[in-house]
Amino acid sequence: MHSSLILLSIPFLVSSTLAAPNPGKVIARQNNPTFRCYHDADFPSQSSWLSYDALWEANLPLLSKVNSESENKAISTSFMAVAQSAGMDPRVLLAQAMQETGGNLHLPCGDSGLSCGILQVQLPAGEAAKCSGMAKGACESNTITAMVQQGVFGHAGTGSPKAPGIANCLKSQNGKVGEALRCYNTGSVPNAADLSQASPSSTPSYVSSVANRLMGVTVIPDKSVLLSQCGFKDPW
User: Fold this and answer.
1) pLDDT of 121-171, one tens digit each?
2) Predicted TM-score (pTM) of this structure
3) Alpha-carbon distances of 195 from 25, 61, 139, rounded to whole Å
């Protein structure tokens, strides 16, 4: 659940405004979204997120570089089906997957082999569904669905200290997405008033980065920008 995605260093327009973006500006920002630094308990409302189809379209060029067409179809189908079964928004899964792995089904397990799959969920050895090291196009649809299910429901569907699952986090945090994302990344919510507070092994900027992805940002600024312009603490 600790994001292992390598961040790309490119110029960004960064807004330090803490208020949630105006939902009326979402469409205008779709092709040129502005990265925002979300601090404290600030998180954009669901009504201001891009639609699932718009988010998928924005990220498809990146997904197509790392997965086959059939794999990407299976990813989207799994997001929709598993999210429906969990009673959650599939846009959260898409944004998390892009933050955790860039949507790449074939990445090695992160966190010294502990976090596996498209959502980098931590499970006991041998239990994780994964396609690490497989050739592009070789990841079967049932494995992809299992990856998503493990990220959503966690260990044995009931959660564990290392893998509560995003659905269990949403339940424990009364449906508050920002708090649920901190729970997923850290295993708990150290401070609901400051969602950048994280354990030493997790990522302070995680909630902010996923929030931006829900607004249509497809590439997150590198660490130096997150530290200097957003003020997140350095856990690296």
Assistant:
1) 888 778 889 999 999 999 999 999 999 999 999 865 454 445 789 999 999
2) 0.85
3) 25, 30, 34
